[in-house]
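Hello K.,

You asked for the raw outputs rather than the summary table, so here they are, unedited. I folded two proteins back to back in the same session to keep the settings identical. This is the first:
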Amino acid sequence: MWSTFFVTDEEGRTVGPAAPGTVVAPGGAPQAAGGLAGLMTGRSTFGGNKRRRTTSTGHTMSEAQEGKIKLAFFVAIVGVVLTVLGVGTEFWVELAAPKSFYNNQTCLAAHYGLWKGCTKTLWVADIDPERESCGPAELPGESNCTYFKFFTTGENAVLFQKTTQKNLNIAAAMLALFSLFLMVMGAICITMSLSKEILFFLKPASICFILSGFLVLLSLLVFHQSVLAFLASDHTVPLHHELSWSVSCIGCAGAVLIVGGILFLLLALPYSPWQRCLPQKDSSS
C-alpha cells in the first residue's frame, strides 16, 4: 500500500504531491533527502571550505615536509643554545701575566666576557712548568668577579693597569642581544608554520636565523677588536691573551644558525632545488 504526501506552501495551500526522496520539514520548505544524509554523515561544506582556505593562503605541508622542517628547526635550536651559552658566560678571553711577575708563589690571571670580568690568583706550583704565563683560568684559586659598569654608570673597567674600550664592548653586547631577538622571532615563525601547516612562515624564519647568525659572528669580531684596543691601552704589564671556549661556542653558533636559515629557505621554495639542478632521467630512455 503506497502513501502519497502532498506539499503545501507557506499559506497552507496544497501545491502537489511530493517528489520521491523529498523530506518535508515541519512548517518549512521541502528539503532533499541527500542534503539530510550529507548532514548526518558529517560531510558538510564548512570543513572543506576551511581546508581550501588554508591551501589558498599558503601551501599545506605534507608529513615529509613537516619532518624536514622539524629537523631544520632542531639545527637552529642547537645554534640558539650555543649562542645563549656563549653570551651568558665570561670566558671570551683569558689574560695572564708572567708567572714570576709579582712573586714566586702566586700569579694573577683574568678572564672576561660581555657582561663581567673575573681576576684569579693562582699558585705557581699548580701551573705547568713549561708554561711561561699564569694560567689557565680553570685551575683552582681565589677568584673575584665583578660586573662591568658600561651599561650603568658608563665607567671603563681596569685590568692589569689596562683600560677597556666601553664603546666596542657595548656594541658587541648589543649585537649579541639583537641576534637573540631575531632567533626568538624565527622560532615563533617556525612554531606558527608547524601549528597552522603553512609554508609561508618559513621565509621570514629563514631571514631571521640567517641575520642572527651573521650578527653573532659580527659581535665576535667587534669583541676581538675591543680586546686588541684593551691590550694597546697600556704596556706596563706584559700580558698573554687567548680566546677561550665561549668564543668557540659563539663561532659555532653563528655557522649553525646560518646553515639552519638556509635549510628553511630551501624548504620554502615551491620546487626542490635538487630536482631542478639534477633532473632524473626518464626510465624509457
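The second followed immediately with the same parameters:
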Amino acid sequence: MMKRLQLFVAAFAILASSSLLASASDPSPLQDFCVAINDTKNGVFVNGKFCKDPKLANAEDFFYSGLNIPRNTSNPVGSTVTPVNVAQILGLNTLGISIVRIDYAPYGGLNPPHTHPRATEILVVLEGTLYVGFVTSNTDNRLITKVLNPGDVFVFPVGLIHFQFNIGNTKAVAFAGLSSQNPGVITIANAVFGSNPPINPDVLTKAFQLDKNIVTYLQSKFWWDNN
C-alpha cells in the first residue's frame, strides 16, 4: 500500500511538472496556422492575435527578407537587434517561435543585460568572439559564462538576466531563436533607471545602496534601446 502511494505521489509530481512546463510557453495552435490580422474586434483583445480566414493566407504571410543585411552599430551600446516575430511575419501567430539577428560593433559591442519574460533563447555565433552569460535566480545569483566563437551555440533559460559582449577586434554577428511568437524584452538598466514615469529615487537609492545624487544622475541619462 505504501509503495503504491509513493508511485501515485511521484506520478502526480511528474504530471504537475509537465503541466507547468507546458504553460510556460505559448499555447499550442488548434489549427495548421493562424495568420494574424490587426483587428481588435471593437476593443476586445485576445492573448495573441486574431486570425484571417485560412483560405486567404498566402506565401507572404510566412515570409521575411533582410536578415542577411548588416545593421548599423554606431550607438551607445554598440549593438543592434533585428527581430523577426509575429509583428514582422504574421504567420508566426500561435506557432510559438521567433528569431533575431544581433550585430555587435568591434571590441565593446554589447547586448546589455536583459530578460525575455516569455521565451528561452538559443544563440549561435556566425562571426566574431562573444563573451556571454546569464545569472541564476535568487538566492544563488550564480553567473554562468562562456566565450563563444563562430559555430558555437549557447542557451539562455526563460526569464533569466543575460547578455552578450564582443571581446574580439572585429565585428560580431549572431542569430538567436526564441520560444515565443512575441518573447518580449526587458533591458535592466532601461527599465530601472529609464522608466516612464521615473521610479521614486528613494526606492532605487535604498535598493542599490547608492548615493541619491548618483541615482538621479542615472535617471537623467538617455537609455538606448538597441531593439
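The chain has four helices and twelve strands.

Happy to rerun anything if the numbers look odd on your end.

Regards,
P.
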